[in-house]
Amino acid sequence: MWNDLDTGAYEGMIAETVSIKGYGGDDVLAYFSRPIGEGPYPAVVLIPHMPGWDEMYREMARRFTQHGYIAICPDIYSRIGTGNPAEIARKAMESGGVADDSVMGDTEGALNAVRSLPYGNGKVGVIGTCSGGRHAFMAACRIDGFSAAVDCWGGRIIVAQADLTPNAPVSAIDYAPSLSCPLLGIFGDEDMNPTPDIVNQFEEALKGLEKDYEFHRYPGAGHGFWYYNAEMYRPTAAMDAWEKVFAFFENNLK
Prior knowledge:
8 strands, single chain, 6 helices
């Protein structure tokens, strides 16, 4: 759990940019970190948000590694180009976003990469925030092999037929019957995407399907309340949510 460490114990990690095989067999960059040691360690795949394959997701990867996880975050925007994360994300938005199939392919490539490591314990979770939260839920439904999934305020989980797009042609909720692992949802009650009403509908769908899930909602918090570089940051809610993520992965991956 957060800050539960032995100040006299050795700690070390390796963090670097690597290449993996992604959607369509493409070479895709990924940020990878792992504890130094023989393991075996559980792993987590991080799916980045629309602000891009950015510094925050690298920090998140290293935070998981500090807590004993292999972490990998694929650059799902790699086909658009490389450069400043915000500029690449803007180009992605202008082109209608990254196609869901492409994100799923890159996520599966990241899953395969960490499952092949000799120091893994064979269990892999997936987590994402914002659009990455939606993709994490979809990955837990569409990709075999995940043992736990975390959706942090994923928007557009439930979408009307008229609002579907070529890159996102299916409402994510339609994949819910295929959810194959426990799901943790983290949401702010002041969020506009997803709104509390959408979260309610999401929960009712999971409940009706008798899926293994738990949702946590935070009054006074809106979208992206983990993002300490923005006005939306809510430190108390953020740290409580991080504790719940660590506990969830501890129970399902370790």
